[in-house]
Amino acid sequence: MRDHYRATGLTERLKTVLAALGPEDQLLTPQQLGVLDQFHTRGLAATAELAQLAGIAAGMSVLDVGSGIGGPARFLAATYGCRVTGVDLSDPFVDAARYLTKRTGQSGQLSFQTASALELPFDDGRFDIVLLQHVAMNISDRARLYSEIRRVLKSGGRFATFDVVLGEGEPHYPLPWARTTATSFLLTADATREAIEPAGFRVLAWQDDTEVAKAWFRQLRASGPPPSPNLGVVMGPDFAELTANLGRNLAEGRLGILTAVFEAA
User: Fold this and answer.
1) N or C: which end of the chain has fewer CB within 10 A?
2) Pairwise CA distance, residues 174 & 118, whole Å
């Protein structure tokens, strides 16, 4: 899995493509980076909807598990005035997240570090909100994942997840999170709930967003090539194929999209 997200030389590639937006000392906005740093279905819109559903507010302490290059964290901090910590397994992603956060002038409000979602380097009850967006599909030990998330949440805190779930039949690979089945650990929506609740959660919101995601992919296809810069800078030249396969799997019912919010008991 580390190999899949290795992204060697990522920060340098980002510096090159962002030169088109202005000199290195020119501040950028999270919205300007939105097509580049939101590594999940429906991009910035999905992050905004999940944040609203989770009830994020000013002054809250938020943990973004699998934070990638920091797009959701920067958007949340700018929009809500919350403090956001991001963790990711990929050193290049963390380095890139720190660089982009410096470019948006948000380094005082955000922090990023390399860490495993199965061994979160934080004290018990540290956070008000934990977000998980398009991450769980890479993790086989779901019980440990959700237990760790519960451990670092305050009692009454909220866990918001936006993830891909298994539908009918075997998915077509490669996909954005896995080029083969070796690093893909999909669960159905029902099995996901059965894995989360025993960790000490009760459901507050449960949405099947598959149809919304399918409509988004149809719009993507109709609009032609994506603007530059885009996620291809992060994931490489085959990103268009990976994304197309995700859209195909959703259209065929092999995959679905789940949005859910839980309260820590």
Assistant:
1) C
2) 25
